[in-house]
Amino acid sequence: MNAETADVVIVGGGIIGMAIAHYLAERRFGRICVLERSYVGAGSTGQSVASIEPLSLFSSTAILQRRSYEVFLNFRERFGGDGGFVRLPLAFFVDQAQLPALQNAVKIAQDAGSTASILSPDEFRAEIPDVQLDDVAGVYCSPDAGFADPVLTLNGITERARAAGIVIRQSTAVDSLEVQAGRIIGVRTAQGVIAAPVVVLATGLWVEALLQPLGIRLPVRFLRHYVVNLGTPAGALRHSIIDGVLDFYIRPEQAQDSCLMGMALHNAADTFADVHDLSKAPPGVSQEMGFQVWEKVVTRFPFLEQAHLKRGYTGVADMTPDNQPLLGPLPISGLFVAAGMSGIGFKMAPGIGQLMADLIAGEAEAARILYPLRPTRADEGSLLVPANRLSTIA
Ligand SMILES: Cc1cc2nc3c(=O)[nH]c(=O)nc-3n(C[C@H](O)[C@H](O)[C@H](O)COP(=O)(O)OP(=O)(O)OC[C@H]3O[C@@H](n4cnc5c(N)ncnc54)[C@H](O)[C@@H]3O)c2cc1C
User: Fold this and answer.
1) Would you say residue 305 lies in a domain?
2) What are the residue ranges of helices labelled H in the chain?
3) Which of 218, 267, 341 to mutate to test the pocket of ligand 1 (most atoms within 8 A of CB)?
Protein backbone atom coordinates (compact mmCIF):
# COMPACT_ATOMS: atom_id res chain seq x y z
CA MET A 1 0.00 0.00 0.00
CA ASN A 2 1.36 3.45 -0.86
CA ALA A 3 2.00 5.81 2.04
CA GLU A 4 -0.30 8.78 2.41
CA THR A 5 1.43 11.99 1.29
CA ALA A 6 1.32 15.64 2.24
CA ASP A 7 3.32 18.73 1.29
CA VAL A 8 3.61 19.71 4.94
CA VAL A 9 2.85 17.79 8.12
CA ILE A 10 2.38 19.88 11.24
CA VAL A 11 2.65 17.94 14.48
CA GLY A 12 0.59 19.50 17.30
CA GLY A 13 -2.89 21.03 17.29
CA GLY A 14 -2.28 23.93 19.66
CA ILE A 15 -2.51 27.56 18.66
CA ILE A 16 1.00 27.56 17.21
CA GLY A 17 0.49 24.53 14.94
CA MET A 18 -2.91 25.79 13.79
CA ALA A 19 -1.65 29.31 13.10
CA ILE A 20 1.23 27.95 10.99
CA ALA A 21 -1.20 25.68 9.11
CA HIS A 22 -3.57 28.59 8.47
CA TYR A 23 -0.90 30.89 7.06
CA LEU A 24 0.59 28.10 4.92
CA ALA A 25 -2.89 27.52 3.49
CA GLU A 26 -3.20 31.25 2.75
CA ARG A 27 -0.03 30.85 0.69
CA ARG A 28 -1.62 27.85 -1.09
CA PHE A 29 1.27 25.67 0.01
CA GLY A 30 -0.37 22.43 -1.10
CA ARG A 31 -1.72 19.56 1.00
CA ILE A 32 -1.29 20.45 4.68
CA CYS A 33 -1.95 17.94 7.40
CA VAL A 34 -2.14 18.72 11.14
CA LEU A 35 -1.75 15.73 13.46
CA GLU A 36 -2.85 16.08 17.08
CA ARG A 37 -2.37 13.18 19.47
CA SER A 38 -5.30 14.21 21.68
CA TYR A 39 -7.78 16.93 20.72
CA VAL A 40 -7.19 20.41 19.32
CA GLY A 41 -6.35 22.67 22.28
CA ALA A 42 -5.50 19.80 24.66
CA GLY A 43 -2.09 21.29 25.53
CA SER A 44 -1.08 24.65 27.02
CA THR A 45 -3.36 26.58 24.69
CA GLY A 46 -6.50 25.34 26.41
CA GLN A 47 -5.11 26.47 29.79
CA SER A 48 -3.80 29.85 28.69
CA VAL A 49 -4.67 33.08 30.52
CA ALA A 50 -4.38 34.55 27.01
CA SER A 51 -3.16 38.00 27.99
CA ILE A 52 -1.89 39.97 25.04
CA GLU A 53 0.54 42.78 25.63
CA PRO A 54 3.53 44.41 23.90
CA LEU A 55 6.37 43.70 26.30
CA SER A 56 9.68 42.42 25.03
CA LEU A 57 13.38 43.05 25.40
CA PHE A 58 14.13 41.79 21.88
CA SER A 59 13.08 43.17 18.54
CA SER A 60 12.25 39.75 16.97
CA THR A 61 9.64 38.94 19.59
CA ALA A 62 8.38 42.56 19.61
CA ILE A 63 7.69 42.20 15.87
CA LEU A 64 5.86 38.90 16.47
CA GLN A 65 3.79 40.54 19.23
CA ARG A 66 2.89 43.55 17.10
CA ARG A 67 1.85 41.46 14.10
CA SER A 68 -0.22 39.27 16.38
CA TYR A 69 -1.91 42.21 18.08
CA GLU A 70 -3.14 43.46 14.72
CA VAL A 71 -4.66 40.03 14.06
CA PHE A 72 -6.35 39.89 17.50
CA LEU A 73 -7.79 43.39 16.93
CA ASN A 74 -9.26 42.30 13.58
CA PHE A 75 -9.95 38.66 14.47
CA ARG A 76 -13.57 38.53 13.30
CA GLU A 77 -12.69 40.08 9.95
CA ARG A 78 -9.81 37.65 9.38
CA PHE A 79 -11.31 34.44 10.78
CA GLY A 80 -15.05 35.01 10.65
CA GLY A 81 -15.62 34.07 14.30
CA ASP A 82 -15.29 35.72 17.69
CA GLY A 83 -11.96 35.11 19.47
CA GLY A 84 -13.23 36.86 22.60
CA PHE A 85 -10.66 39.64 22.31
CA VAL A 86 -11.13 42.49 24.79
CA ARG A 87 -8.91 45.54 24.52
CA LEU A 88 -7.54 46.60 27.89
CA PRO A 89 -4.47 48.69 28.77
CA LEU A 90 -1.43 46.98 30.25
CA ALA A 91 0.25 48.20 33.44
CA PHE A 92 3.53 46.53 34.37
CA PHE A 93 5.08 47.47 37.73
CA VAL A 94 8.84 47.42 38.32
CA ASP A 95 11.28 48.41 41.04
CA GLN A 96 14.31 50.68 40.69
CA ALA A 97 16.64 47.89 39.54
CA GLN A 98 14.39 47.07 36.58
CA LEU A 99 13.82 50.63 35.35
CA PRO A 100 16.66 50.57 32.75
CA ALA A 101 15.19 47.40 31.22
CA LEU A 102 11.80 49.12 31.00
CA GLN A 103 13.32 52.01 29.13
CA ASN A 104 14.70 49.52 26.58
CA ALA A 105 11.32 47.77 26.40
CA VAL A 106 9.59 51.06 25.53
CA LYS A 107 12.01 51.72 22.68
CA ILE A 108 11.74 48.14 21.38
CA ALA A 109 7.91 48.27 21.49
CA GLN A 110 7.85 51.65 19.71
CA ASP A 111 10.29 50.46 17.02
CA ALA A 112 7.94 47.51 16.38
CA GLY A 113 4.97 49.90 15.99
CA SER A 114 3.35 49.58 19.44
CA THR A 115 2.56 52.39 21.84
CA ALA A 116 4.28 52.21 25.24
CA SER A 117 5.45 54.66 27.85
CA ILE A 118 6.62 54.73 31.47
CA LEU A 119 4.56 56.49 34.13
CA SER A 120 5.81 57.44 37.58
CA PRO A 121 3.87 55.87 40.48
CA ASP A 122 2.17 59.25 41.11
CA GLU A 123 1.10 59.55 37.47
CA PHE A 124 -0.30 56.01 37.57
CA ARG A 125 -2.26 56.75 40.76
CA ALA A 126 -4.27 59.21 38.69
CA GLU A 127 -5.60 56.10 36.86
CA ILE A 128 -6.13 53.82 39.88
CA PRO A 129 -6.08 55.93 43.07
CA ASP A 130 -6.30 52.96 45.46
CA VAL A 131 -3.21 51.12 44.29
CA GLN A 132 -0.28 50.71 46.74
CA LEU A 133 2.94 51.58 44.89
CA ASP A 134 5.50 52.30 47.65
CA ASP A 135 7.87 49.61 46.31
CA VAL A 136 7.30 50.53 42.65
CA ALA A 137 9.66 52.84 40.74
CA GLY A 138 7.93 52.91 37.37
CA VAL A 139 4.90 51.61 35.49
CA TYR A 140 5.19 50.47 31.87
CA CYS A 141 1.88 51.27 30.21
CA SER A 142 0.48 50.40 26.83
CA PRO A 143 -2.99 50.76 25.34
CA ASP A 144 -2.11 48.10 22.71
CA ALA A 145 -3.00 45.22 25.01
CA GLY A 146 -5.88 43.05 26.17
CA PHE A 147 -6.88 39.44 26.46
CA ALA A 148 -8.74 36.84 24.42
CA ASP A 149 -10.55 33.59 24.98
CA PRO A 150 -7.96 30.91 24.14
CA VAL A 151 -10.52 28.27 23.16
CA LEU A 152 -12.62 30.60 20.98
CA THR A 153 -9.47 31.93 19.32
CA LEU A 154 -8.14 28.45 18.58
CA ASN A 155 -11.57 27.32 17.33
CA GLY A 156 -11.74 30.33 15.00
CA ILE A 157 -8.33 29.57 13.48
CA THR A 158 -9.11 25.84 13.28
CA GLU A 159 -12.43 26.37 11.50
CA ARG A 160 -10.78 28.67 8.98
CA ALA A 161 -7.99 26.14 8.42
CA ARG A 162 -10.51 23.34 7.90
CA ALA A 163 -12.48 25.47 5.43
CA ALA A 164 -9.26 26.06 3.51
CA GLY A 165 -8.89 22.31 3.03
CA ILE A 166 -6.34 21.54 5.74
CA VAL A 167 -6.62 17.97 6.98
CA ILE A 168 -6.84 17.90 10.80
CA ARG A 169 -6.52 14.52 12.49
CA GLN A 170 -7.20 14.34 16.21
CA SER A 171 -6.33 11.29 18.35
CA THR A 172 -3.37 10.76 16.01
CA ALA A 173 0.00 10.77 17.75
CA VAL A 174 3.19 11.01 15.76
CA ASP A 175 5.36 8.23 17.17
CA SER A 176 8.54 9.01 15.26
CA LEU A 177 10.04 11.07 12.47
CA GLU A 178 11.16 9.42 9.25
CA VAL A 179 14.58 10.64 8.10
CA GLN A 180 16.68 9.57 5.12
CA ALA A 181 20.12 10.86 4.16
CA GLY A 182 19.78 13.92 6.40
CA ARG A 183 16.33 14.87 5.05
CA ILE A 184 12.92 14.51 6.65
CA ILE A 185 10.73 12.27 4.53
CA GLY A 186 7.66 11.91 6.74
CA VAL A 187 6.17 10.93 10.09
CA ARG A 188 5.06 7.62 11.52
CA THR A 189 1.75 7.21 13.37
CA ALA A 190 -0.06 4.11 14.59
CA GLN A 191 -2.05 4.25 11.33
CA GLY A 192 1.08 4.27 9.14
CA VAL A 193 3.52 6.66 7.54
CA ILE A 194 2.58 10.04 6.10
CA ALA A 195 5.27 11.00 3.61
CA ALA A 196 6.13 14.71 3.51
CA PRO A 197 9.16 16.78 2.51
CA VAL A 198 8.41 19.35 5.25
CA VAL A 199 7.52 18.61 8.88
CA VAL A 200 6.91 21.25 11.54
CA LEU A 201 7.06 20.31 15.22
CA ALA A 202 4.58 22.49 17.09
CA THR A 203 4.37 20.06 19.97
CA GLY A 204 4.87 22.50 22.85
CA LEU A 205 6.15 20.84 26.01
CA TRP A 206 6.52 17.51 24.27
CA VAL A 207 8.98 18.53 21.57
CA GLU A 208 11.95 16.58 22.93
CA ALA A 209 10.27 13.17 22.74
CA LEU A 210 10.40 13.18 18.92
CA LEU A 211 13.87 14.68 18.65
CA GLN A 212 15.84 12.63 21.17
CA PRO A 213 15.92 9.49 18.96
CA LEU A 214 17.52 11.67 16.25
CA GLY A 215 20.19 12.88 18.65
CA ILE A 216 18.81 16.44 18.75
CA ARG A 217 18.41 18.03 22.17
CA LEU A 218 16.51 21.25 22.72
CA PRO A 219 16.83 23.10 26.03
CA VAL A 220 13.16 22.98 27.08
CA ARG A 221 12.21 22.82 30.75
CA PHE A 222 8.89 23.12 32.60
CA LEU A 223 7.43 25.98 34.61
CA ARG A 224 4.10 25.51 36.33
CA HIS A 225 1.57 28.36 36.36
CA TYR A 226 -0.89 28.56 39.25
CA VAL A 227 -4.02 30.37 38.12
CA VAL A 228 -6.87 31.37 40.42
CA ASN A 229 -10.21 32.88 39.61
CA LEU A 230 -11.04 35.73 41.99
CA GLY A 231 -14.62 36.97 42.44
CA THR A 232 -14.47 40.79 42.47
CA PRO A 233 -16.92 43.68 42.45
CA ALA A 234 -18.03 44.41 38.86
CA GLY A 235 -15.47 46.45 36.92
CA ALA A 236 -12.92 46.37 39.78
CA LEU A 237 -9.93 46.33 37.43
CA ARG A 238 -9.69 48.12 34.11
CA HIS A 239 -6.09 47.14 33.37
CA SER A 240 -4.25 43.98 32.65
CA ILE A 241 -1.57 43.95 35.35
CA ILE A 242 1.84 42.30 35.46
CA ASP A 243 3.59 42.91 38.76
CA GLY A 244 7.35 42.58 38.32
CA VAL A 245 7.97 43.41 41.99
CA LEU A 246 5.61 41.00 43.75
CA ASP A 247 5.65 38.55 40.83
CA PHE A 248 2.07 37.92 39.84
CA TYR A 249 -0.31 38.83 37.05
CA ILE A 250 -4.01 39.64 37.13
CA ARG A 251 -6.57 40.61 34.54
CA PRO A 252 -10.35 40.93 34.53
CA GLU A 253 -12.45 38.23 32.93
CA GLN A 254 -14.96 38.91 30.21
CA ALA A 255 -17.87 38.56 32.66
CA GLN A 256 -16.50 41.62 34.59
CA ASP A 257 -17.34 40.17 38.02
CA SER A 258 -14.12 38.20 38.35
CA CYS A 259 -10.43 38.28 37.57
CA LEU A 260 -7.84 35.68 36.67
CA MET A 261 -4.69 36.00 38.74
CA GLY A 262 -1.66 33.83 38.68
CA MET A 263 2.00 33.26 39.20
CA ALA A 264 4.61 30.91 37.82
CA LEU A 265 6.73 28.72 40.11
CA HIS A 266 9.16 25.92 39.44
CA ASN A 267 7.63 22.69 40.79
CA ALA A 268 10.31 20.09 41.51
CA ALA A 269 7.64 17.37 41.34
CA ASP A 270 7.06 17.97 37.60
CA THR A 271 8.79 15.11 35.80
CA PHE A 272 8.95 14.67 32.05
CA ALA A 273 6.90 11.46 32.35
CA ASP A 274 4.12 13.15 34.36
CA VAL A 275 3.90 16.19 32.14
CA HIS A 276 4.01 14.00 29.03
CA ASP A 277 1.04 11.91 30.14
CA LEU A 278 -2.07 13.88 29.14
CA SER A 279 -4.30 11.32 30.84
CA LYS A 280 -2.94 12.38 34.25
CA ALA A 281 -4.91 15.22 35.79
CA PRO A 282 -2.58 18.15 36.58
CA PRO A 283 -2.24 19.09 40.26
CA GLY A 284 -4.78 21.72 41.29
CA VAL A 285 -4.17 24.89 43.28
CA SER A 286 -3.99 24.20 47.01
CA GLN A 287 -5.78 26.50 49.44
CA GLU A 288 -2.36 27.64 50.66
CA MET A 289 -1.15 28.50 47.18
CA GLY A 290 -4.43 30.29 46.40
CA PHE A 291 -3.97 32.50 49.48
CA GLN A 292 -0.35 33.16 48.56
CA VAL A 293 -1.44 34.67 45.24
CA TRP A 294 -4.41 36.46 46.84
CA GLU A 295 -2.15 38.08 49.47
CA LYS A 296 0.09 39.52 46.77
CA VAL A 297 -2.91 40.91 44.92
CA VAL A 298 -4.37 42.50 48.07
CA THR A 299 -0.98 43.98 49.02
CA ARG A 300 -1.00 45.80 45.69
CA PHE A 301 -4.75 46.48 45.45
CA PRO A 302 -6.08 46.81 49.05
CA PHE A 303 -9.60 47.46 47.67
CA LEU A 304 -9.70 43.81 46.55
CA GLU A 305 -9.64 42.53 50.13
CA GLN A 306 -13.32 41.64 49.86
CA ALA A 307 -12.67 39.62 46.72
CA HIS A 308 -13.12 35.89 47.19
CA LEU A 309 -11.18 32.95 45.83
CA LYS A 310 -13.07 30.76 43.40
CA ARG A 311 -11.70 27.79 41.48
CA GLY A 312 -8.05 27.43 40.50
CA TYR A 313 -6.08 25.33 38.07
CA THR A 314 -2.49 24.78 37.05
CA GLY A 315 -0.81 24.45 33.68
CA VAL A 316 2.75 23.98 32.50
CA ALA A 317 4.68 26.27 30.18
CA ASP A 318 7.60 25.12 28.00
CA MET A 319 10.54 27.37 28.89
CA THR A 320 13.89 27.95 27.21
CA PRO A 321 17.05 29.25 28.93
CA ASP A 322 16.53 32.80 27.59
CA ASN A 323 12.72 32.67 27.89
CA GLN A 324 12.26 33.17 24.15
CA PRO A 325 10.74 30.69 21.67
CA LEU A 326 12.64 28.27 19.46
CA LEU A 327 11.60 29.03 15.88
CA GLY A 328 13.17 27.81 12.68
CA PRO A 329 14.94 24.97 10.92
CA LEU A 330 16.64 22.05 12.67
CA PRO A 331 19.79 20.36 11.39
CA ILE A 332 17.71 17.91 9.33
CA SER A 333 16.67 19.30 5.98
CA GLY A 334 12.92 20.04 5.81
CA LEU A 335 12.40 19.75 9.59
CA PHE A 336 11.27 22.88 11.45
CA VAL A 337 10.35 23.59 15.06
CA ALA A 338 8.10 26.15 16.73
CA ALA A 339 8.17 25.31 20.44
CA GLY A 340 9.61 26.47 23.77
CA MET A 341 7.07 29.31 23.87
CA SER A 342 8.20 30.27 27.38
CA GLY A 343 4.77 31.26 28.69
CA ILE A 344 4.23 33.95 26.04
CA GLY A 345 3.19 31.88 23.03
CA PHE A 346 -0.46 32.84 22.90
CA LYS A 347 0.09 36.54 22.35
CA MET A 348 2.63 35.84 19.57
CA ALA A 349 0.82 32.96 17.85
CA PRO A 350 -0.59 34.75 14.77
CA GLY A 351 2.76 36.45 14.13
CA ILE A 352 4.59 33.15 14.59
CA GLY A 353 2.15 31.51 12.16
CA GLN A 354 2.77 34.20 9.54
CA LEU A 355 6.54 34.25 9.83
CA MET A 356 6.99 30.47 10.08
CA ALA A 357 4.85 30.08 6.94
CA ASP A 358 6.99 32.73 5.19
CA LEU A 359 10.16 31.00 6.39
CA ILE A 360 9.02 27.59 5.13
CA ALA A 361 8.16 29.22 1.79
CA GLY A 362 11.77 30.46 1.63
CA GLU A 363 11.26 34.18 2.26
CA ALA A 364 14.48 35.94 3.21
CA GLU A 365 12.76 38.63 5.34
CA ALA A 366 11.21 35.98 7.63
CA ALA A 367 14.57 34.21 7.90
CA ARG A 368 16.16 37.52 8.93
CA ILE A 369 13.55 38.36 11.60
CA LEU A 370 13.51 34.84 13.04
CA TYR A 371 17.27 34.24 12.93
CA PRO A 372 17.89 35.37 16.57
CA LEU A 373 15.25 32.82 17.67
CA ARG A 374 16.80 29.88 15.78
CA PRO A 375 16.46 26.63 17.74
CA THR A 376 20.19 25.89 17.61
CA ARG A 377 21.19 29.10 19.40
CA ALA A 378 21.85 27.46 22.78
CA ASP A 379 24.29 24.94 21.24
CA GLU A 380 25.99 27.78 19.38
CA GLY A 381 26.41 29.76 22.61
CA SER A 382 24.15 32.50 21.18
CA LEU A 383 21.33 32.69 23.72
CA LEU A 384 19.59 36.04 23.72
CA VAL A 385 20.88 38.35 26.43
CA PRO A 386 19.01 41.60 27.06
CA ALA A 387 20.92 44.81 27.73
CA ASN A 388 19.13 44.96 31.11
CA ARG A 389 17.05 42.32 32.80
CA LEU A 390 13.44 42.23 33.99
CA SER A 391 12.26 39.93 36.78
CA THR A 392 9.47 38.60 34.60
CA ILE A 393 9.34 36.91 31.22
CA ALA A 394 9.83 39.45 28.45
C1 LIG B 1 -1.48 28.55 32.80
C2 LIG B 1 -0.88 29.20 31.59
C3 LIG B 1 -1.12 30.55 31.36
C4 LIG B 1 -0.60 31.17 30.23
N5 LIG B 1 -0.88 32.49 30.00
C6 LIG B 1 -0.42 33.08 28.87
C7 LIG B 1 -0.73 34.43 28.61
O8 LIG B 1 -1.40 35.10 29.39
N9 LIG B 1 -0.29 34.99 27.45
C10 LIG B 1 0.49 34.28 26.56
O11 LIG B 1 0.90 34.84 25.54
N12 LIG B 1 0.80 32.99 26.79
C13 LIG B 1 0.38 32.38 27.91
N14 LIG B 1 0.68 31.08 28.18
C15 LIG B 1 1.50 30.36 27.19
C16 LIG B 1 0.68 29.93 25.99
O17 LIG B 1 -0.57 29.44 26.39
C18 LIG B 1 1.46 28.87 25.23
O19 LIG B 1 2.75 29.39 24.93
C20 LIG B 1 0.78 28.45 23.94
O21 LIG B 1 -0.56 28.09 24.15
C22 LIG B 1 1.56 27.30 23.35
O23 LIG B 1 0.89 26.81 22.23
P24 LIG B 1 1.49 25.58 21.46
O25 LIG B 1 0.63 25.35 20.28
O26 LIG B 1 2.96 25.77 21.28
O27 LIG B 1 1.42 24.36 22.50
P28 LIG B 1 0.21 23.47 22.97
O29 LIG B 1 -1.05 24.23 23.09
O30 LIG B 1 0.70 22.74 24.18
O31 LIG B 1 0.02 22.46 21.77
C32 LIG B 1 0.93 21.42 21.50
C33 LIG B 1 0.09 20.23 21.05
O34 LIG B 1 0.95 19.23 20.53
C35 LIG B 1 0.34 17.97 20.79
N36 LIG B 1 1.36 16.94 20.66
C37 LIG B 1 2.47 16.78 21.44
N38 LIG B 1 3.20 15.73 21.01
C39 LIG B 1 2.54 15.21 19.95
C40 LIG B 1 2.79 14.11 19.07
N41 LIG B 1 3.87 13.33 19.22
N42 LIG B 1 1.90 13.85 18.09
C43 LIG B 1 0.81 14.65 17.90
N44 LIG B 1 0.52 15.69 18.72
C45 LIG B 1 1.38 15.98 19.71
C46 LIG B 1 -0.20 18.14 22.21
O47 LIG B 1 -1.20 17.20 22.51
C48 LIG B 1 -0.69 19.58 22.19
O49 LIG B 1 -2.08 19.67 21.89
C50 LIG B 1 0.20 30.43 29.31
C51 LIG B 1 0.46 29.08 29.55
C52 LIG B 1 -0.07 28.47 30.67
C53 LIG B 1 0.21 27.00 30.90
Assistant:
1) yes
2) 15-26, 59-73, 75-79, 99-111, 121-125, 150-163, 207-211, 272-276, 287-300, 345-360, 364-370
3) 341
Average pLDDT over residues 356-382: 97
* Pocket residue to mutate for ligand 1, from 201, 227, 335, 346, most atoms within 8 A of Cβ: 346
Q: How far is the CA of 20 from the centre of ligand 1 (A)?
A: 14
Query: Are 229 and 286 found together in one domain?
Result: yes
Q: Residue of the nearest CA to atom 30 in ligand 1?
A: 43
Could you list the residue range(s) of the whole structural domain that residue 235 is in?
82-145+220-319
Report whether pLDDT(86) > 90.
Answer: yes
Is 80 exceeded by the pLDDT of residue 369? yes
Side-chain half-sphere CA neighbours of 239 within 13 A: 19
Shared domain for 157 and 265, answered yes or no, is no
Interval 341-357 mean pLDDT:
97
Cα 324 to middle of ligand 1, angstroms: 14
> What is the best residue among 39, 49, 285 to mutate for testing ligand 1's pocket, by most ligand atoms within 8 Å of CB?
49
% of the chain residues with pLDDT over 70: 98
| Statement to judge: residues 168 and 191 lie in one domain | yes
Do 194 and 342 lie in a common domain? yes
Q: What is the DSSP string of 298-312?
A: HHH-GGGTT-EEEEE
Same domain, 38 and 175: yes
Q: Model pTM greater than 0.90?
A: yes
> Do 234 and 291 belong to one domain?
yes
